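Hey, resending since the last one bounced:
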Amino acid sequence: MSDAAVFRTTQYQICLCVNCPICEQYFFGVSVFMINTVILGIAFVAGTILLVLFGYFLMRRIAAAHVVSDSKDLAGSVIFRISALHGLILALVFAQQMFEYHKLQDETVREASVITDIYFDIERHGGPEILEIRTALQKYVALVVNEEWQSLSEDGELSSAAWKEWEKIYDTLLDLEANTPRQEDLRRFMLSDIRTVAEMRDRRAGHGLKTVSNMFWFAAISGIFLVSLAYYCFTPTLHHIVLIGIFAAFTGIILFFIFSFSDPFGAPGALQASAFERLLSNNFAD
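The structure tokens again:
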């Protein structure tokens, strides 16, 4: 592998060389990507705070003059019920996104593991096909890192070039000659592993097609706004504004996390293809 090899993903740029231009994409030691992520997170939090304060002051302007002695009790009951349902929706969606994220991470590690098994088992098997299969494995992993991750983020499609390399490996393994029981076992193991790779690829494509429903975003935003309307019974003192802002800020943080993990292949919460990158930088190094 070249000393100037650089592996790119949609979100991350991993440099394995010295004096690479990519390394210059830092501002005072902080990556441009990290800066953009922080800015986007602040935008989510600030937007949520503004939405809540807008709803609060709008309702104050409309109905503040009609507040009676028991209005706060009723408002508190309404806020509690809406907030409980709203929090439950956020918690369920957030938990589901994290589950899918970690599931993809485990599947990626498993795929990298079986690829490593094939890489070394073909040498144990022996024969003229060693170089052909190892070269195809190297190309396959490089395509997954350099092309497929970005393709999945953009259009939810797997790399056709990576599929071609997979087919080349599969066909070669099918044609392997097994002259001893040891070779027969190794051939069977490698065929099972390459089929596992195909299964992990299909699952990865499924992750690329999943997204958070627009209905969730409607429920999340409308829930925040309705809660903000119910606060109108409380006078706009600094203490009250700060407390309302804290509620809005935390809700904005949760919404940002849900948004970030809704696309596991795209920024800002993309899963790094580190398992494949380690193969390229270690196991497959010449």
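Residues 6-62+71-213+260-283 form one domain.

Sorry for the duplicate.
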